[in-house]
Amino acid sequence: MEIKTIHQIEKQAMKKSHTELARIGFALFFLVGVLAFSFATSGGVPNNVFLAVAAVFGGYMAMNIGANDVANNVGPAVGAKALTMTGAIVIAVIFEASGAIIAGGDVVSTIKKGIIDIDAFGSDTDSFLWAMMAALLAAALWLNLATMAKAPVSTTHSIVGGVMGAGIAAAGFNIVDWGTMAKIASSWVISPVIGGIIAAAFLFSIKKTIVYKDDKISSSVKWVPIYVALMSWAFITYLVLKGLKKIWPQLVGGFNDIMFFTVEVTSKPTFTTALVLGALVAITVYFYMKKNIKSKIDTIENSRGGVNALFTIPLIFAAALLSFAHGANDVANAIGPLAAINDAVMTGGISAKAGIPLWVMGVGALGIAIGLALYGPRLIRTVGGEITELDQMRAFSVAMAASITVIIASQLGLPVSSTHIAIGGIFGVGFLREWLDSTVSIEYGIAQDKAEVKSDKKALQATKVELKKLEKKKGKNDQDYQRITELYRAVDKEEGSLKKSKKVLKKDQKTLYVKRGAIKKIVTAWVITVPSAAVMAAFIFYMIKGVMS
Q: Positive or negative CA dihedral for 451, 454, 460, 464?
């Protein structure tokens, strides 16, 4: 039996190693393809080797974005079982790539968020190239490490840290705009707190208006269309503001061609325009959902599960729209250093804005898709189920928080991270559940359980020490042998008591709806992302400079 078990373990280990090798092989094949394409299309251009190597770094960065950052968009839907893992990956791949290519922007800031002064490089194009390469590779490496540790971190913050560290290494501390850095640091608190509050507020509202009612079906008919319409309003507003900036003039121009009235063509949508479009869609969605729920009223269960089922389809749309907006908004920023390197190599100079060639956007979009397909499930599981247990209503609240927080923050000029918002939303719904189930009593019970385990361990240790002394004693009498027998019985009893105490503790710890270990790990990763990426970028810059000098 033992030999058979060992054989099964070996078989599973071999299967896992083969799968991992296949993933690595596919990733390397993509990077080699990027390298070959870059060489083939930039032959004869000075510094084309730099560009080819930078393209590989850009592809590596894109894969790490797919493996880490995209989980925030689809993880809640997977955790709520609205989507399977395969379905989530397919949706995310399609909409992330579509967002990047269709609405990803023609131009990107070469220095993310304006955190360093580009004029400090002067005419030293080589130092600028080395700094951008170092920033790109450091950000990618940090994302890779975070993914291995199952810690969802901000791609934007990784790039910010990389650019800051490389900039300091190239031109000193005065190159950094420390006021901007302070704003970015503030987002570590602002993003998760706002996201958590909004998500908890929506979940509490759903509970009060539907879940806590005796007649959940009638409440669902009344309130679910309202909630889904609000989600539609928020998401369309978010999508118009963040995802359609590149193609907005063409969209308005096409609209004017088919309508009997004309709309002023602007370079990008205004907040008012986005709100109006969102409201129009929301009204349509409201009446559709109202009609749809009424038509299925006989099949809806008067239970929490029946209510949850009504949020499944909206969640799938939310995952798709979040992925599209992420692809359109964040991907271009993430590959900013690659666009900057391409611009510097092609023009021989340094500029604050750089055009994004289609091939650079293609590297970003395809790299994200490959990284997500190969390594995305690890973080999707973490976001979807290892922080707190999610169902459709909770995941819906998290999605609402993601869209609304970004809209509010962008209008107020607050620096926020979509990653931190989503995770903060998950924390928010988890802590709300604890509060509703009387967190104080839960934590008090756990403290009591821990004290019980500690007491049982102490008693068992004391018994074992006494037993060991008696067994070593020479010239034992009848009383000693009798005591030894009693101690053996006491050891068995105390071991059973300790085992039972540990079991009770483990059971009560599960009652804490937000895993404390997950909080510590994720928050720690957030705090050290910028400095870690910065240190890595500075080190890589000095390495490149040493090799090239």
A: negative
For residue 181, the SS3 value is helix
Domain residue extents for the chain = 42-437+532-548, 440-509
One digit per residue, pLDDT tens: the chain, 549 residues?
A: 455 555 555 555 555 566 788 888 889 999 999 998 888 887 677 778 888 888 999 999 989 988 888 888 898 999 888 989 999 999 988 888 888 777 666 555 556 556 888 778 877 888 888 998 999 999 999 999 999 888 888 888 898 899 999 999 998 898 888 888 888 788 778 889 999 999 999 999 999 999 888 899 999 999 999 999 999 998 888 888 776 766 777 777 766 666 655 666 677 788 888 898 899 999 999 999 999 998 888 888 888 888 899 999 999 998 888 888 788 776 666 677 888 888 888 887 777 677 778 888 888 888 888 998 888 888 898 888 878 888 899 999 999 898 888 888 777 776 677 788 888 999 999 888 877 765 544 555 556 667 777 887 888 888 888 878 878 887 778 787 788 888 888 888 888 887 887 776 666 555 556 777 788 888 898 889 999 999 999 999 999 988 887
* Tally of CB atoms within 10 A around 63: 29
What is the Cα–Cα distance from 60 to 271, expressed in whole angstroms? 35
- How far is it, in rounded angstroms, from Cα 427 to Cα 523? 11
Q: The dihedral of CA 121, 125, 130, 133: what is its sign?
A: positive
Please give the span between the terminal C-alpha atoms of the chain, in angstroms, as a whole number. Answer: 64
Q: How many whole angstroms separate alpha carbon 487 and alpha carbon 252? A: 86
Residue environment code for 200-226, b if the CB has 16+ CB neighbours within 10 A, otherwise e: bbbbbebbebbbebeebbebbbebbbe
Report whether 401 contacts 437 (CB < 8 A).
no
> How far apart are alpha carbons 52 and 35 in whole angstroms?
5
The count of C-alpha atoms lying within 13 angstroms of the C-alpha of 434, restricted to the half-sphere facing its C-beta, is 23
Residue 85 · residue 380 · CB < 8 Å: yes
Instruction: Report the C-alpha gap between 215 and 284 in whole angstroms.
Output: 26
Contacts 24+ apart (CB under 8 A), 518-527: 518/382, 518/386, 518/387, 519/387, 519/427, 521/149, 521/150, 521/151, 522/151, 522/152, 522/387, 522/423, 524/151, 525/146, 525/149, 525/151, 525/152, 525/153, 526/153, 526/154, 526/157, 526/188, 526/420, 527/188
Which residues, listed in sequence order, are joined to residue 353 by a DSSP beta bridge?
109
Q: Nearest 5 degrees, angle CA 402-CA 403-CA 405?
A: 70
Count CA within 13 A, CB hemisphere, residue 332.
Answer: 28
Helix axis angle, 392-412 to 216-243, nearest 10°: 40
CA dist 526 and 361 (Å) reads 27
